[in-house]
Amino acid sequence: MSDSGGAVSRLDKPQAPADPPLRKNVNFQLLWAGSVPAFLGREIVGLVYPLVVLAITGSPGWAGAFGGVQIFASLVCGMPAGALADRYDQRRLLLLVETVRSLATSSVAAAYFLHELTLIHLLLVAVVLGAVQPVGGSTRMLLVRSLVPGRQLTAALTQEEVRSEAAAMAGPPLGGFLYAVAGGLPFLVAAGGFAVAAGCTFFVRPPARTAGAEAAGGARRPPRDELPLLRRMLVGLHVLWSRPLLRSGMLFGAAMNTVGAPIILVVVVQLRDQGVGSGTLGLATIGMGVGGLAGALLVKPLHRMLAPGVLLLSVGAVEAVLIALLALGRGPWWVAGLLFLMGLNGPSVRVLVDILIFRQVPDEQRGRAVAACMTVFGAGSSLGVLVGGQLLQHLSPATAVLVLAACETVAVGIGLGARSLRKAVWPEDMHV
């Protein structure tokens, strides 16, 4: 009799309400809408900063140094950024990041219009922007995770990819147009975009389960004095390295970044050597951004058809072939087509990495794990740019891309030997 009663009791227990559609998730959509002008602004000034440095100094070396300083600051601050994201309120941290970006970019606009802009000022801004980048990246990822139910995470991350790829496609040509109108105008537009993002972030309200847990001093917030500062910062790297799947995925992703980072540089040198004009060259390089935007539509189908490790290794193998085909040097439209095909793969891989980190790392360590992964990927990109430049210094562009394709092929071969990567499966509750 008691068993029957227990069964009835379980049947009578009210079911949890279904999650509302993602489009009706006001907090996520508000955060996403605010990020659109911010990401666009970042792409706009990403093109303009080297142009301004070149105009001030006349030195291509200093023009490249701006990006180098920014990347270096991001790498240095990557691990501390994860510790901050795990320990403090993520909405407030993101609000602070967007405010700092707006103020730093506004200072460049003001100095430009007052004819007081100097190289030192620009390099200091590069340090500031680089330092807040990993903080913003980590906190945004964690905030999205807290705002979106697990079953909708793939859709939310795909929407994030659409924004990023659209900004990457529209930002550079818009930046060039604004810079031609008035040199300080791109910085004003970007500063306004960061300010809009800060305003939207201010009104985001994470669910009560997150805010309540932190307010109550629950398990989400680790004890402040549990570990020394340095060890706390390295926790994320330790977590990723101690799990075979996460370690293999992180290293393979870093290898792909190392090979992919110099591709645009190689393409630019290749097309320039062929006498292609700057306008046509710009249109050809946009191919990767267009491919990325189209690739956002493939995230869900690819994740349904392929296991994560199989998808990652397949993308690596396909990219090795596409990079090798660049060596044929058949003109700008051939290059644009290959870059488009490379761009198709990007969103699926980035969402894959996000899902694996989001779902397999404990909440209290997730920020540091995300920051550690971003730092390793960033180091791979930096190494790739350095190696790519040296290859172009001593080899023809065609030979350089063949070397890069060979490196990608070796990485795929090593990845095939990692059983944890080959046998990886999607988390059960993702329903991708």
Keywords:
432 residues; single chain; disordered N terminus; mainly alpha; globular; 0% strand
Order of helices and strands: HHHHHHHHHHHHHHHHHHH
Q: Based on DSSP secondary structure assignment, what is the total number of beta strands?
A: 0
Low-confidence stretches: 1-13, 209-225
Rg, rounded, reads 23 Å
Determine the oligomeric state from the structure: single chain
Q: What percentage of amino acids are in beta strands?
A: under 5%
Shape: globular
**What is the distance, rounded to the nearest whole angstrom, between the alpha carbons of the first and last residues?**
42 Å
Provide the structure class.
mainly alpha
Share in helix: over 70%
Instruction: Estimate the mean pLDDT confidence.
Output: 82
Number of helices, where a helix is a run of at least 4 consecutive DSSP H or I residues: 19
Largest beta sheet, briefly?
A: none
Describe the structure.
It is a single chain. The protein has 432 residues and is an all-alpha fold. It has 19 helices and no strands. Helix 11 runs antiparallel to helix 18 and helix 15 packs antiparallel against helix 16. The longest helix has 32 residues. The two termini are 42 Å apart. The N terminus is likely disordered.
Outline the secondary-structure elements.
Elements (H helix, E strand, L loop, with lengths): L1 H11 L13 H32 L2 H28 L2 H24 L5 H29 L5 H29 L3 H19 L4 H8 L13 H14 L1 H17 L2 H11 L4 H8 L1 H9 L3 H7 L2 H18 L6 H29 L2 H32 L2 H20 L2 H4 L10
Helix pairs in contact: 2-3, 2-5, 2-6, 2-7, 3-5, 3-9, 3-17, 4-5, 4-7, 5-17, 6-13, 6-16, 9-10, 9-17, 10-17, 10-18, 11-17, 11-18, 12-16, 13-16, 14-16, 15-16, 15-18
